[in-house]
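Researcher: Next sequence.
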Amino acid sequence: MASLINDRQRLETEVKEARSALIVSSNPGIAELGRLREETRIVTQQREALQKKNESLTKDFDFTRQQYQQASTSAVELASENTALKAQVAVSTVPIPVLPNPLNPLPPGKYPPN
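Model: Next structure:
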């Protein structure tokens, strides 16, 4: 396993050196080709990174939208349940009669002026 890692690192170093040699070549055509290949490699890496970021953001957006839909549905259900419960309370509420107070023979709110 260690030898594979060393081989990979060695090969990466050789590729970098070869790319650098192309860019600084005395032949202008080869130097231009090396420069363009390097630019293409960098742009490709940037594009791949942006594609991954876009995928991640899309997943986040989809998750957020799903959570919003669930919360919205739940709010509608709770509002409907709340309305039904208020209707039940209104139907089942019976006014409490005011019983006469033996200590005060006047009905509530009917007090003589001072």
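Model: The longest helix spans residues 28-92. The CA atoms of residues 83 and 89 lie 10 Å apart.
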